[in-house]
Backbone:
């Protein structure tokens, strides 16, 4: 590799570790940044850039984190706050809540503190300026129209809220001085508050930055018994709502680490993200890796149909990288032997190559072009291919195929050196010879002077 | 002597895990129930493989495979008295057991006439039983230490690797952790062991004495260490780095006078680092130095930019030089490296529509300065669109590659649709492509069309059946069939 690309790599390593790190830590101060997780829904809920405390983000939250809800009510938070109400005037149990399962929506009793509701008089009139008491002052029907009791509709439409797929402890946050407005500030300027007004992950990361408090994913996200994040989440298919059915995977959108964005092409191209085993395993089972990288059934979108016909092209180019899922000398050799492609289809005996009908120079099926092996000793087609990607060769051949010509053992004949010019003086020669001379001894005699790389 | 050593080495991880599990369980005075998860998959495949008869004529070999996979996980097997939470409410002193076993059987004409006896190779055995991993693990022991004891699989910049032994990671402080591991490499020649994470280079089945076939059965000790920067992986940390080292070696089989008593099979140092700038620009780089070859053999630099909330652009440079098992002569033969420049672009459009494109250009180094070395370029790209709706997704992909290796041009149209929520999902795929080899362009070329159709059925809680059929036709076949049936059972208690 030339010096320029080596320097580039090292500089980028340093940049990534130093500048990127420092910048990352520096920008981890409280403040907004894009959402980090998406619902793998093709972008519908991914990555809003807003997220300012008091402003409503442009894109609704992921239904996986905050499932759809139904709130058939009319309510004006801004007006109530102007009239002097405080958050805990109505949301009495919020400051002591320890679970997202707690129902923090005020019941009718909380309204009665000001609204003189009388269920026997649904159309009760109150003096001008007094809080309304009619049913339709607050309740809406399924269609969103003001609701009054009728023979056809004796009960108002119910508020239906599903639990968020998160862990959250209001009591803990309040105890640490986090006021309601830090997370729910935008509500003060709104009428009805919905799931669209719930805080997003960027806001959480303002404090959960690894310095002020934990930035561990499992501190907020629901986890499985084995400690992994739960990613297959019901998006509201509960008895509580019945609004959305089914489950969908929660996937990173790429904001946290960039290369982890699970876009449509991620399954085929996750080379960069896949270097961090522990990060992947924080969501995935180990078996999910092995199902593809060493499994017996590949995902059907990795290779096109009838890939056996085409695979030779890709194998020579090594794109996609065959070795990421297949070991050439077991997976490839087995199939090539059985399908009559390998030269030693009957096994590994010496001389078996001669029985193969498809080698160079036959008329049946010449796998290699004319001139593939130049027995005169000059550079030939096969040497360039072998030096460039010998894995293609070894999907059929074993070392003994090479030794037939390239061994320095006079008893074998040949004696064609596979070493490039001045190999003996190279660091590669010295490293190979000093670390494992067994490979050298496959061609050279124990006492051969060339083993000293001089 | 080695015949005794082989099975012991192969089973040490598995039995080590079982012994560890039993020891931990015995610490508890009375019987107790454990949380556990079982994933079972029974996979049946029937398909036709193109082959060549001894006469040279094309033939289709029928292959039928039955594979059974068992993944067993048991959680919180530590005594209840050990339970505790860290300050950030992370469970500490957690012990667990994880194992994955695979039983693979082959039938059909594909297995008839295969090499047998001394010529039989593992990949063509009628049945194979593998323990892919089986280990007892611990998380945050004393709040600081993670460990795994038994057969385990890992991956990082150094590659995938599997060994029977121990891996221990200790958190030094909030930012640094140190890891050490050691054991015996998992090799295909050992019992209950798959070769899938073994380095290429030396091939089982060789009977040429010069290749020292007995070396394949040698136990290979493995040891390594790593330093990790960036805190826990399970955290929203903007920067991570890992420096790791691994060495594998083996004693010499059938040693003759004058030969070395041992040799290194693999020795590498790897460094990866990644960081974020303002959570919009992401950098990552990896570097691997192969001490066996005294050269860098894997280098990667990548940047990814979130240009807007809905657009991401990526650029990568990579350098890869071939390397093999230290016992292989191919470390000498294979000296040509290549470097890639890759680019990618993603655009998310509402509602649920994503467009993506990717391209690469590759340049092969001239091997050893050989002036006749030609065809040193390759390149290509792909583009696609995925439209996701509430009940399904439709996807269209097109691709083209050319240069060294040959040419291929094709497209896929696939769809998956949830007919009945959670219980019935239908899927299909149409494929068409044309290809031509650059080596034998007169004969190695063809056109293929493929059709797939199938469905996934939920039979009950945690039980699913996946059926798929495929037919291909084109230059080589009027019809080529493939069938797949997967029965999955997940149970968690």
Residues:
């Amino acid at each position: 590799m030339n010096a320029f690309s080596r320097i580039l790599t090292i500089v980028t390593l340093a940049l990534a570790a130093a500048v990127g790190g420092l910048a990352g830590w520096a920008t981890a101060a409280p403040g907004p940044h894009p959402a980090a997780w998406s619902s793998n829904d093709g972008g519908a809920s991914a990555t809003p850039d807003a997220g300012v405390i008091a402003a409503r983000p442009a894109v609704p939250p992921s239904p996986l984190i905050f499932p759809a809800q139904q709130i058939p009510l009319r309510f004006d938070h801004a007006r109530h706050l102007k009239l002097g109400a405080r958050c805990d005037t109505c949301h009495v149990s919020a400051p002591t809540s320890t679970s997202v399962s707690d129902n923090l929506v005020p019941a009718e009793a909380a309204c009665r503190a000001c609204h003189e509701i009388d269920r026997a008089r649904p159309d009760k009139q109150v003096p001008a300026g007094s809080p309304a008491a009619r049913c339709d002052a607050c309740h809406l029907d399924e269609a969103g129209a003001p609701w009054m009791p009728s023979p056809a509709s004796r009960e108002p439409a119910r508020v239906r809220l599903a639990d968020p797929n998160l862990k959250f402890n209001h009591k803990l946050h309040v105890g640490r001085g986090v006021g309601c407005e830090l997370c729910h500030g935008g509500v003060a300027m709104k009428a009805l508050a919905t799931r669209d007004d719930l805080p997003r992950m960027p806001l959480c990361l303002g404090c959960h930055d690894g310095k002020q408090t934990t930035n561990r994913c499992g501190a907020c996200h629901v986890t499985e018994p084995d400690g992994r994040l739960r990613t297959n989440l019901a998006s509201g298919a509960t008895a509580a709502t019945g609004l959305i059915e089914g489950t969908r995977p929660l996937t990173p959108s790429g904001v946290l680490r960039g290369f982890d964005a699970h876009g449509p092409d991620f399954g085929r191209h996750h080379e960069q993200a896949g270097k961090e085993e522990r990060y992947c395993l924080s969501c995935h089972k180990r078996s999910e890796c092995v199902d593809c990288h060493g499994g017996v059934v590949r995902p059907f979108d990795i290779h096109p149909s009838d890939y056996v016909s085409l695979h030779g092209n890709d194998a020579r180019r090594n794109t996609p990288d065959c070795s990421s899922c297949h070991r050439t000398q077991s997976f490839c050799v087995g199939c090539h032997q059985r399908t009559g492609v390998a030269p030693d289809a009957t096994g590994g005996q010496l001389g078996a190559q001669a029985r193969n009908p498809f080698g160079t120079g036959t008329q049946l099926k010449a796998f290699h072009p004319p001139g593939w092996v130049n027995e005169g000793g000059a550079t030939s087609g096969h040497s360039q291919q072998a030096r460039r990607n010998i894995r293609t060769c070894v999907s059929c051949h074993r070392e003994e195929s090479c030794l037939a010509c390239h061994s320095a053992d006079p008893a074998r004949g040949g004696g064609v050196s596979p070493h490039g010019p001045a190999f003996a003086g190279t660091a590669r020669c010295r490293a190979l010879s000093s670390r494992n001379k067994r490979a050298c001894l496959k061609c050279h005699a124990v006492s051969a002077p060339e083993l000293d790389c001089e | 002597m080695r015949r005794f050593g082989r099975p012991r080495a192969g089973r040490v991880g598995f039995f080590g895990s079982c012994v560890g599990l039993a020891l931990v369980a015995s610490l508890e005075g009375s019987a107790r129930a454990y949380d556990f998860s079982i994933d079972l998959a029974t996979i049946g495949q029937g398909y036709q493989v193109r082959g060549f008869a001894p006469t040279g004529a094309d033939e289709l070999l029928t292959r039928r495979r039955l594979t059974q996979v068992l993944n067993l996980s048991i959680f919180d097997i530590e005594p209840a008295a050990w339970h505790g939470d860290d300050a950030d409410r992370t469970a500490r002193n957690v012990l667990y057991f994880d194992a994955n076993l695979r039983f693979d059987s082959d039938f059909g004409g594909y297995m008839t006439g295969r090499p047998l006896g001394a010529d039989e190779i593992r990949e063509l055995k009628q049945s194979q039983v593998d323990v892919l991993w089986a280990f007892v693990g611990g998380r945050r022991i004393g709040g600081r230490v993670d460990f795994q004891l038994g057969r385990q699989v890992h991956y990082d910049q150094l590659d995938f690797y599997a060994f029977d032994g121990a891996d221990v990671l200790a958190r030094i402080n909030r930012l640094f952790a140190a890891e050490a591991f050691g054991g015996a490499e998992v090799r295909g020649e050992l019992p209950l062991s798959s070769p899938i994470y073994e380095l290429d280079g030396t091939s089982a089945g060789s009977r040429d004495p010069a290749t020292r076939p007995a070396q394949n059965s040698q136990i290979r000790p493995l040891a390594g260490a790593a330093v990790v920067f960036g805190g826990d992986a399970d955290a929203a940390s903007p920067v991570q780095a890992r420096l790791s080292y691994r060495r594998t070696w083996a004693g010499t089989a059938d040693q003759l006078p004058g030969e070395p008593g041992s040799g290194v099979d693999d020795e590498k140092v790897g460094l990866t680092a990644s960081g974020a700038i303002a959570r919009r620009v992401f950098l990552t780089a990896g570097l691997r130095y192969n001490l066996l070859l005294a050269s860098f053999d894997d280098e990667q630099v990548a940047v990814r930019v979130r240009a807007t909330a809905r657009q991401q652009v990526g650029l990568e440079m990579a350098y890869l030089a071939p390397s093999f098992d230290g016992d292989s002569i191919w470390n000498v033969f294979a000296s040509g490296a290549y470097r890639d420049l890759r680019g990618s672009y993603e655009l998310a459009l509402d509602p649920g529509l994503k467009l993506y494109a990717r391209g690469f250009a590759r340049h092969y180094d001239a091997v050893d300065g050989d002036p006749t070395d030609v065809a040193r370029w390759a390149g290509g790209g792909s583009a696609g669109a995925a439209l996701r709706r509430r009940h399904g997704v439709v996807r269209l992909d097109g691709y083209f590659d050319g240069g060294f290796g040959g040419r291929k041009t094709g497209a896929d149209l696939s769809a998956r649709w949830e007919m009945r929520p959670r219980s019935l999902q239908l899927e299909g795929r149409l494929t068409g492509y044309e290809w031509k080899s650059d080596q034998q362009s007169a004969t190695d070329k063809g056109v293929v069309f493929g059709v797939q159709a199938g469905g996934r059925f939920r039979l009950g809680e945690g039980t699913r059946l996946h059926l798929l059929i495929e037919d291909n036709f084109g230059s080589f076949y009027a019809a080529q069939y493939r069938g797949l049936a997967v029965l999955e059972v997940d149970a968690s208690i």
Observations:
- The beta strands of chain A are 37-38, 232-234, 247-249, 251-252.
- Chain A touches chain B through 165 residues (CB under 8 Å).
